[in-house]
Here is the input.
Amino acid sequence: MYKGKVVLVSHFAIPYKKIASWTNSFSYYVKRKRSLIDYIVSPVDDLDSLDQVDAKHIGIKEPKVFRYKMNMVIPHYKYFGYWRAIDALLDEHESLIVMVLDNPGLLRAIQFHSAKRGKRSRLKMIFFHHGYHYFFENRILQEMYDSMDELVVLTKSSYEYQLSMVNSMPMEVSHIYNGIDSNRFRRISSTEKKALRKRIGLDDDKIYFIWLSQDRPKKGLHIVLRAWDTLSDQHANIELLVIGTHREVRGKGIRWLGRIPNHDLPQYYQAADFYLFPTLWHEGFGLSLAEALKCGSVCIASNIDPVGEVMGFGRYGRVVDFPHDPSRWIEAIEEEMTKYEENDRINPYLKNIPEDLYDLDEWCDNIDKLVEKWKRYIQLPK
Here is the structure.
């Protein structure tokens, strides 16, 4: 039996009450009755949520002032509070499995101070990378990889790219796709869809497209709007629903819905026909894309790694090559609209998409398996 403890370390509060991606997933995980986490080391965001967690929470307040000067005295001073919490736990326990969430600076701080004090051998460091790549210089990347015992990536594409950027990745690597709540993000019947459209003010006979994100250039809204100028002139029965931007977006065949609470998003995915994901950068995973896939929307997405992988390399929807060109979107949308109409307005890709695709409970089970693996490893004789 493993005599040490499992510690989750995050620079964001866990549990987390605001809308986010991996923070919400790990908040869901630690609230499960059979969570394997013994301690959470993080800032505090929601005191009420702590009552729903069995793990003991150790609150951290990062320093706000004098960080530059103190850093010359105490290396990695910004994250020194996290190390002190872990060091205190090492006074109580033989060893720790430390799960560091998506912060290379925090990882390097724990590595530095644990090695300096001769305690690194008592830690097994699992690092969860929730992007595609950090794009640091090679020296920093190599130092980061040397600091961990296992790297957990969201996609195989991310792993392959990271491996190509350095001389050595000496740790173990696991791949776990993001998880989506299948109880909220799910398909509905055509009868339910018709009633839903009526309830939220959408016409029954129109074909609706959704674009959803923050309005940053790398999210590709401007590319879609350029394409929409042409599409809206050629097709009178289409409408683009723009969700998530602070600025109002106007145009022919465009309805701006602004910011919508996360708990209301499933009904828009379910009521629409198409979801557009014109990202122009290497997304970590594309959470909204996975949500739309699970709700049954016909998804059309940029073929930029790792998006193609999330799309099943074209099995789950249409991937657009050279997505920086609006004409490619016009071509893809018109072709997919034709398929959709010929299929009686039923998503032709549904037959390829498992309903439990990217399921959140399966994601939690995979995290459990990862922890159990390290518990077994630590028990092996030297």
About this structure: The two ends are 16 Å apart (CA to CA). Residues 294 and 357 are 7 Å apart (CA to CA). The mean pLDDT is 93. The chain has two domains: 5-179+360-379, 190-352.
